[in-house]
Amino acid sequence: MNLSDLFLQPERLWMLAVVPVLILAYVLATRRRKRTGMRFTNTAVLGRVVRKQSQWRRHLAVALSLLSLITLVLAWARPNGVDRVPRERATIVLVIDVSQSMAATDVAPSRLEAAKSTSIDFVKSLPEQYNVAVVSMSGNPATRLGPTTDRTMAVRAITGLTLQDSTAVGDAIYVALSAIEMAPKGNDGSAAPGTIVLLSDGQNTAGRAPLGAAAQAKSDSVPIHTIAYGTENGSVDLDGKRERVPPDADLMRTIASETGGTFAAAESAGDLSRVYQSIRSEIGYDEVKKETTANWAGYGLAFAVVAALAAVSLGARWP
């Protein structure tokens, strides 16, 4: 990041070079004042002639004056800030793991049923103009619902998810990217920003490499928000044998990091609900640059007013 990203007219910042010069001049003047004061040996007489000033108030007045100058120069350079503007439209693809490990009951009544319930709440909480798509993640990922604003259809698609074999994280990401391309264009022909929310409770066991799919998502400017769902002690009975099914947090964290998304771990339905709320806030806004000159000018004025009051207090004779 350079100065041109922070200020609209960064060349005006050269005025800040005056500040260290003023500080040096103040220090030299203070030292000279002390040396001049040492010439008077009769301090009692001097105290009657010249009223003693408060040192801390004098230093405070100077410091506030300098702060006022600094903030006014920054305002003069027209600084940029960041404002969070609600998105008018977006396409959210919800990828839900439906592998056999989602039958684990460490999250009541089961991982899959709890995930379906909280996912439905999440979908209903999204702005009505957002497109929602649903992808099931197993050894054979599939789009269960293409992008639509119809929340009733989205709820039906999530409710109808059933357990399947294996987990192909990479293939599921590719399917989700294809679903985003299916979203209707805007009136101006532009595509709505796409985001993938991927919930998985296990490790990748089939299909293409997840990190290769993440690289494609990054290339397409599609962030993937990942959720590692379930506890380390989760287990299921497969072919008469009890298998531990801990979530692969490292893989989920890496996918999120590579694509600019967020990562969270959820060990209960309550945790998952809070994670979804956080993701909703994350995907619902765009960060837009906004000039903040008025704010900095206000800071400068405030410092100047307090500095003036401090200076007046130096010359006032208080009872």
TrEMBL record:
Spans through the membrane: 12-29, 60-77, 296-316
SUPFAM superfamilies: vWA-like (SSF53300)
Alphabetical UniProt keywords: Cell membrane, Membrane, Transmembrane, Transmembrane helix
Top-level taxon of the source organism: Bacteria
Gene3D superfamilies: von Willebrand factor, type A domain
Tagged with keyword Translocase: no
This protein's name: Magnesium chelatase
